[in-house]
Amino acid sequence: MYRLDRRDIGTACEATSQPHGHALGNVRRNVAEKVTLIADWNPPFAFTHVLHYMLEQSGKIPTWLEFIHFIRGTNQGRNMLGWASEAARSEALRALDPRGQQRWSPSEVDDALRWRLGNAYYSFVRELHVLVHMRSKGLDVRVHPLADALFRTDAWVSRAVFSIYVGNRKYRSNHEGRKKEAVRILGGAQPSFCFESIHLPSAAERGKVYLASESQLEARLRKLLP
Known about the structure:
mainly alpha; 3 strands; 50% helix
């Protein structure tokens, strides 16, 4: 990942504009997030672990279609995430409402699963974009799937910890939402960390990867560069 440059980010983003290349397709948030068993699902292998594995194996950022083929069409991918996603889908389809009727339709469950996987994929691309930009400016920014999965640390440089997220009040918006912030896990460390958030509003244009703006990143750089 430390060999990536802006061209690699551009190639990954361009791939999302190709037929069937956009990770979220035509799925709508209000439909996807009502299937709570999928919205709250966390597989044994963290999404970030699977995506980092693919990057290290291929030497490039996987496209959305490559990610889906890996987890559904290869033994390694099925063992890491494919079987777990199928089990989550089956559980959601069996879920009953208080009247004993099917809670969610197959199309709703499939949309929810795509929303969950698609947002994990785009989060990965956003984190790599921040990594590439800041390293190009001379900062020794680091990332690691364990830091992400266990400590909610999307990237770090020295004692500065970065969290990169699209605002969503249900999951995270500033200090609200159910997703645990890095500061809640690492806030008591000695010597202490400082915590930097890159908060992106919800995307205004559907069908494109939503990356941090140059102005957001430059503002962080001015604070971190000596």
